[in-house]
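Now for a sample.
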Amino acid sequence: MKAGNGTTADNGESAPRTGRRPGHSGAREAILTAARTRFAESGFDKTSIRAVASGAGVDPALVHHYFGTKQQLFAAVVDLPIDPEATLRKIDAAPLDRLGETILGNVVAIWDSPAGPGVVAAVRSILGGGDMALARTFVLDVVLERVRLRIATAEDDGRARVSLIATQMIGVLVARKIIEVEPLASMPAAELVAAISPTIQHYLTGEINIPAP
């Protein structure tokens, strides 16, 4: 008798199927590998779930099954122990004149939470020679792009402003959690936010000297 997909073998027992199927034990790793390549080469916006699925040799539904949204897939690629979408929704809901305070307050809360060590470990990995293209994509295309769109005008696309915000946020993270500069390292979160968020707000909405492109 026939042996193969959906058939029986000569001994009358069902023969195992061959080839990749949804739920294959290596599918999750294949998706992560394909996503890492796509995000690094094409950036966040130009990478689609369908393209990642094609690169991994799986159905797009399986990508959603394992990882949910594209933001959650990216978080898995950079090995973050958090869902960035939850924080981004809070930032989206903040009024423009409190955007700097909201951004810093929510990010510091993550750093100081039980998930914080995982975030710091990811940053250490990047600073130690990790994938800089993925790091830039995460900071500019995932975390700050929605902020940029809110502050963009016909005269100023907001890219310089969000890059200045990135320098501030990365500097605070490194000083507070990696180098542990005192008294910044042990400063209560509320005091830290009160001290630094006005600078971030100024980058967002204040008058800054932005060179013409």
Summary: The chain is about 60% helix and 0% strand.
